Amino acid sequence: MSTDDRKNDSQHGSKAKLAPDKNNDGSSASANNTKTVKKLLLVVVAMFGFGFALVPLYDVFCDITGLNGKTNSTAVDYTATGIDESRTITVQFITRNAKGIPWQFEPVINEITVHPGEIKVVSFYAKNNSQHDIIGQAVPSVSPGLAANYFHKIECFCFTQQPLKSLEDVEMTLQFYVDLDLPKDINTLTLSYTLYDITEKSS
User: How far apart are alpha carbons 137 and 83 in whole angstroms?
Assistant: First the structure.
């Protein structure tokens, strides 16, 4: 064998050793992709489960702290031991209609000042502008959310359903007081009502 032949054989052998195994690389990449997909699926499932678990935990937390702005859904008795005339709190009133209820719904006055422990009475106006009877239900909330624990409704139209015939109107009453223990850094409360059409649910 000539010197040139030996060189060629040596170069071919080196190239053969260096040539990658395409089949092995393909199998390895496929295995890696499968592992990655499994990991991503586990992450998605874990995130979904965690988010689902947060719902009841959040509800419990809000019920304890009042941070969701929910107020009492039934009438309370007046239990204040007096009136704190050294503090003046502004209570604002906001109304909105849920989608699909053709009522005029608004506070007679937009805001009022009150001393903690003092009972106040305000009114809200509603009119059914549709051509058919509708049963409405107002759902209240207070902001800041923490203040909901200190806003007490003695009487409220939101405790009951409000049936109105076509073009009928009504003035509805809210009687409330602000607790003497309202935190000192809260000077303004906003009471918001959202009005829903519950006619189908009530039938």
Answer: 32
| Cis status of the peptide bond prior to 144, with omega within 30 of 0 | yes
Structure confidence by residue, pLDDT tens digits, 32-61: 667 676 667 776 655 554 444 444 443 444
Mean local confidence (pLDDT), 9-30: 52
Same-domain status, 139 and 54: no
Per the structure, the count of domains in the chain is: 2
72 lies in some domain: no
Domain coverage including residue 111: 89-202
CA distance 115 to 84: 6
Q: How far is CA 165 from CA 19, 100, 108, 113, 162, in A?
A: 87, 16, 21, 34, 10
The DSSP line for 37-98 is HHHHHHHHHHHHHHHHHHHHHHHHHHHHH-TT----SS------SS--TT--EEEEEEEEEP
Nearest to 190 by CA among 106, 122, 90, 98: 90
Q: Are strands 89-97 and 188-197 parallel, antiparallel or unpaired?
A: parallel
Ranges 1-10, 57-66, 178-187: which has the least confidence: 57-66
Total Cβ atoms within 10 A of residue 150: 20
Distance CA(189)–CA(142), nearest Å, equals 7
CA distance 61 to 42: 28
pTM: 0.66
